[in-house]
Amino acid sequence: MSSKDVDRLSRLPEPIVSHILSLMPTKFAVRTTILAKRFQYSWMFVTNLDFDDDDSTNATDIFSRLALLLTESRHNSDSFIKFVDRVLESCRSPQVNLVRIHVYYKVRESCPSKWIDKAVRLNVRELDLRLSLSHLPLSLRTCKTLTKLVFHRTGRDRQASKCWECPERVSLPCLKTLDIDVCDDPHENAFRVISGCPLLENLSLEVYRVWGEYERQDDYIFNIPTLKRLKLMLGYDLVNHKVVLNVPKLEYFVLCGELFSLFVMEDVSSLAEVTLSIERLDSDHHLWDELFKGLSGVKSLSAQNENSRGCFGFISPLPVFQNMKHLELNRFWNPEFIPLVLERSPQLTCLCVKHVHDYSKHEESDWIEPKVVPACMLTNLTTIKFKCVGQKCVIHLMEYMLRNAEVLKTVTITWRNLCFQEETRLAAKLLKVPRASHDCEVSFIGGGSLSNASY
């Protein structure tokens, strides 16, 4: 810095100033009017507009024309509404990249529709909405510049029985990412939007049911030839449905919630990575069997069992995961299940096991060593990661892996909820086990001095 006072901020080129202001919540961008005269109108040329009613909590007087709008508490919806109205009306950017509007209390129905209309007139590319809205305005349904749409209703609205509605006409020719939630009947709303997105690549759909509403028997058919990423969140006993996936370009699939629907994989030939997080399961376990069969071509699988009653049962044998190289099992999986998966995964190179079934009822007699060593343990399995407590059945599983995995290079064991003495005892026991692989390094991570110890 020179000895003279230099206002370097004011000397920045206008595009740089606009870019900086676009990286902050809009209320802060507007506050820059107090810095210098040259900043009086800079905020009008931002390319991102970020409105959040929580952001107005500490608002202060910054500009004579906006003073009233920024000094009210966030619980006064009128001040927030007026602020959003004024900024959207004053924005002079030829194209806005992002408009984010999060409102956590109910506002007049006309307000969100008016905001969306103004955003569309600004040639918005990404629209992120969390607010109360009963229907999608025509301007949104036919926006030619929109590439990403996120629309979730607020918590209070989600508890209401009436879902947002989408009239017949939908044409979003540039939309590639869609993230929405819908109540009870996706056919009437969500699938109507999806059908109007010819370039859709990323879809996140949350379907939840309001108690007491009717049940429909229609299938959920995802026939989207351009889709690459799909996330489905199913909840509240959505039963009697069949989910059909005809998505030949799908690479990443995430399924969360409750498994009460039959999944039919018509074409998932490009599927590479799958994440499952199942909270509840229909008593008929064939749904789980069918889901695994449909995912048999996956390369990476992460399965989280949130059902604390124990591991899911299987009516038929597991399918052969011919291409799977990475497997992660989390939460309440029985140790006996792991060799079964390994047996059906001949190309597996990395196994991660977290928080396996930790019921105290598991005793030494519960572990039955497989008669045949899985092929992957003899030729491909190089990395194993365990994160668990020290039940006898789990320790026996670890010993089995060390004795039989011939190409292992690294084994990482993270102790959980154990005292230092118990960590030391179990580590010493495992280190005495003869290793089939002479290149195998065993590392222990725990709360005591065993942290990051390798042998």
UniProtKB/TrEMBL annotation:
<dbReference type="Pfam" id="PF08387">
    <property type="entry name" value="FBD"/>
</dbReference>
<protein>
    <submittedName>
        <fullName>FBD domain, leucine-rich repeat domain superfamily</fullName>
    </submittedName>
</protein>
<feature type="domain" description="FBD">
    <location>
        <begin position="375"/>
        <end position="445"/>
    </location>
</feature>
<dbReference type="InterPro" id="IPR032675">
    <property type="entry name" value="LRR_dom_sf"/>
</dbReference>
<dbReference type="InterPro" id="IPR050232">
    <property type="entry name" value="FBL13/AtMIF1-like"/>
</dbReference>
<dbReference type="InterPro" id="IPR055411">
    <property type="entry name" value="LRR_FXL15/At3g58940/PEG3-like"/>
</dbReference>
<dbReference type="InterPro" id="IPR006566">
    <property type="entry name" value="FBD"/>
</dbReference>
<dbReference type="Pfam" id="PF24758">
    <property type="entry name" value="LRR_At5g56370"/>
</dbReference>
